[in-house]
Amino acid sequence: MVMKLSGGGSPTLYLLPNHLAPEYDYDFTNINDNRMKFERGNFEYKCLCGWKRIALNVLDKYENNIWLGVYGRKSSISSAQNEWPVSYHGTAKHNCKSIAEEGYDLCKYKRFAFGHGIYSTPDIDVASAYATQFTHEGDRYQVVFQNRVNPNNLVRVTMKKTGVDEY
């Protein structure tokens, strides 16, 4: 999960401590990647520059952690073998707890402009357009989930079809 902060402060999302993995939190708010090309799961994705990552606890969610790319990465810009691609999903703050606890629930979604599914994009700027802004203690925030997408279930919707970017 990543948050864009406007005005500083500490976010409050009402997630339980067991949902979080603070050792993987990272502050990208003052990072400039100079438009470097990054790859995860052999797909290009856009870095989190300007955002703060608050990590959810997903280690050992499946039979192993290879899907996370935690082993064998040759450089920070390349993919590790058998890792899943990274994508981003913008949402409203009231969805955070249920997504963290239960994952994405297709039954809760109502808009399917490009077919039945949960939409995400490798470009955080595109995902942020779907993230509702909210104010907490005078500071503005947005919430975007950073996902790993199982390549066996991945359906790509082209920029030509969306008119915005690839989903």
Shape: globular
Strand content: 15-25%
Helix/strand class: mainly beta
Main β sheet profile: 6 strands, antiparallel
Tell me the series of helices and strands, N- to C-terminal.
EEEEEEHHEEH
For the residues shown, what is the average pLDDT? 83
Number of strands: 8
Protein name: 6515_t:CDS:1
Topology, element by element:
Elements: E1 2-6, E2 26-27, E3 38-40, E4 43-45, E5 52-53, E6 86-91, H1 96-102, H2 124-128, E7 134-136, E8 139-148, H3 159-162
Can you put this structure into words, describing what you see?
The protein has one domain (2-162). The protein has helices at 96-102, 124-128, 159-162; strands spanning 2-6, 26-27, 38-40, 43-45, 52-53, 86-91, 134-136, 139-148. The mean pLDDT is 83. The strands form two sheets. Strands 1, 2, 5, 6, 7 and 8 form a six-stranded antiparallel beta sheet that branches. It has 167 residues and is mainly beta. A hairpin with a 2-residue loop joins strand 7 and strand 8 (139-148). The protein is globular, with a radius of gyration of 16 Å. It has three helices and eight strands.
Search tags:
two-stranded antiparallel ribbon; mainly beta; globular; six-stranded antiparallel beta sheet; 167 residues; 20% strand
In brief:
The chain has three helices and eight strands, in the order ββββββααββα. It has helices at 96-102, 124-128, 159-162, and strands at 2-6, 26-27, 38-40, 43-45, 52-53, 86-91, 134-136, 139-148.
